[in-house]
Amino acid sequence: MTPAAPAPIVALEASGLGQAMRQWLWLYPSVEIVHVTGIALLFGSIAVLDLRLLGFSRGVSVRKLASHVLPWTLASFLLIVPSGVMMFTAHATDFITNPAFAVKVSLILAAFANAGIFHAGVFRGAERWDLGVAPPLAARAAGALSLLLWISVIACGRLLAYF
Amino acid sequence: MIQRLLAALLFTPALACAHHGWSEYDTSKALKLTGKIVESGYEHPHGHIRFEAPGKTWNVILAPPSRMERRGLEKGMLKPGAVVSVEGYPNRDKPEEMRAERIIVNGKTVELR
Question: Chain B contact for A21, CB < 8 A?
């Protein structure tokens, strides 16, 4: 425990949930499994669309692919967020001072912003590059940035244990 | 710190090969210490004890509790006051921390890696 952490973070770690996460024999590993399953669904569903945006598999409709994978991307957060909050609670005072955690949260926000800009921008005209043609530069850039950001998020998640 | 983090990000595949945490410890400096437990946590992701060895109190990182239980090292065996021997390695950066390779409690040796 880090004494420098703010009081609500200290209280969160001392809560019943925090204690259960640390002390119940199989809760922590079970929650980790849910988190990793969620990440697999999140990254898998995002990566197939990003690769399509980069210009692979041009015979597959961008709009159909997006409408197939996006609900699964959103559903993955139902697995990731509660399990992530539970793991944070177990060692909240350590996470809050861990540089890898701050970088991870920042990268997630950047990835959300990238996705928002893509959907509000170049994706609106997707009927013009839906099939058989190279996606526009803005779409390729969004796909590449998305892959880079989410891989970095995964790296930071793993590095939490090493800082 | 940022530079260290970026360097670590670049070399993530190498890190992923190391088991959680061992790379932080200096395995060239094996320690074997006996002392009295003053505090213990049978907790995830790793259990720990603070114990008074001759001349120094160490924070000893153990294994996940599920592994310790499976190997017969139960929570009650790590109570404050218990005298234990620990073999392990010091942390490269935190002078009071070590990671235990094995622990000997009541004459029983439990491997922790």
Answer: yes
B24 contacts in chain A (CB < 8 Å): 162
Domain assignment of residue A29, yes or no? yes
Interface with chain A: mutation pick from B2, B4, B5, B67, highest number of A CBs within 10 Å: B5
Fill in the amino acid letter for A88. F
**Banded model confidence at residue B23, pLDDT cuts 50, 70, 90:** confident
Q: B25-111, what's its fold?
A: OB fold (Dihydrolipoamide Acetyltransferase, E2P) (2.40.50)
Would A3 be classed as within a structural domain? no
Please indicate if any CB of chain A lies within 8 Å of the CB of B9.
Answer: yes
pTM greater than 0.95: no
Flag whether pLDDT at B11 surpasses 70: no
- Quick: pLDDT tens for A94-141: 999 999 999 999 999 999 999 999 999 999 999 999 999 999 999 999
Summarize the confidence of residues A84-99 as an average pLDDT: 96
B42 to chain A, any CB pair closer than 8 A? The answer is: yes
**Would you call B35 helix, strand, or coil by DSSP?**
strand
Report domain extents, chain B.
Answer: 25-111
Q: Which two tokens stand for residue B81?
A: 């006051």
Residue A4, in any domain of the structure: no
Instruction: Count the domains in chain A.
Output: 1
Looking at the predicted complex, does its ipTM rise above 0.95? no
Which tokens sit at A89? 């609670």
Neighbouring-strand partners of residue B85: B34, B104
> Is the residue at A98 inside a domain?
yes
Can you give the residue range of the structural domain that contains A56?
10-162
The residue written with tokens 């049978």 in the block is B42
Which amino acid, B16? A
